Amino acid sequence: MSRLAERTLTPLAWTAALLVPAAFLGLMAFLLWRGLPSLGPALFFGDTPPFSALLSGAPVFEGIWPACLGTLYLVLLSCCLAVPLGIASGVYLAEYASGRAKALFGFCVDLLAGIPSILMGLFGFALILLMRKTFWPVANTCLLLSAACLALLVLPYLISATRACLEGLPPTLRLTGASLGLTHWQVVSRILLPAASQGILGGIILAVGRAAEDTAVILLTGVVANAGAPGLLTDKFEALPFHIFYLAAEYQTPQELNQAFGAALVLLCLTAALFAASRRLQQALERRWKNGRSQNEGNAS
């Protein structure tokens, strides 16, 4: 019976293992086939001279350059809001919370992780309506509101990653810090967080990808078509996910549809660049931690 199960499950396992890269390669091939012919200065800047758009901030109306800038600003701002709070909350859950407080806080994090992105967008839109009726009549959807809602959306990933990495460290690290006379916070900040930095940065990478590709949240909180590059945090903005959605739904010529495929390819490249930068930072921190650890061991010997 066991041999029959092995003979049956082995081909199924190989099939499942091959389906994922095959689907990825097929999707990439189709996207490259449709998107590569559209790549060029005209895709980014339209009829505007590229140097005028880059150096003097000339408006771009037919290209995706404002959407690229809006996506980059949105991702960076949402990560600046979410990363410190997420890491601090994960540290609290792993090292300081206990009993009912830990169970309640963990339940709230799990509940927040299960909220659909469209509900997060509705929350931001309802918040603007509440502000208009109470203390800020001129409140409106904007880049800052979209970034705040996206920060709430990716916050559970950061909290869970930080908590899991800290709780997965060997107890000897905590005992070593205590034996050296370090306080609990010194153990956390100087030993545990550097040791868990690789896993925490993995959570940050997931948060970056989630923030870069989401459309439902920004659809209700500030993104519009042809808004141009945002100058202030309270301005409307463009973003690549919404630009792709808008062109795919409203295109009137084959050229506009091809621009949507080109924008999808650019979004993929932008996300890959952010992932690569996060990965380089992750490797640098890991090397720093290993070098510091080896130096400490050498001094101790």
Question: Which helices and strands appear, and what pairs or packs with what?
Answer:
Blueprint: H1 2-35, H2 41-45, H3 50-55, H4 65-96, H5 99-113, H6 117-133, H7 143-167, H8 171-179, H9 184-195, H10 197-213, H11 216-219, H12 240-250, H13 254-300
Helix pairs in contact: 1-13, 4-7, 4-10, 5-7, 6-7, 7-10, 8-9, 10-13, 12-13
Note the main sheet.
none
Which CATH class is shown? Mainly Alpha
What is the share of helical residues?
over 70%
Whole-Å distance between the termini? 56 Å
Any overview of this molecule?
With 301 residues, the chain is an all-alpha fold. It has one domain: MetI-like (MetI-like fold), CATH 1.10.3720.10. It is 78% helix and 0% strand. Helix 4 packs antiparallel against helix 10 (197-213). The radius of gyration is 24 Å and the shape is globular. The mean pLDDT is 83.
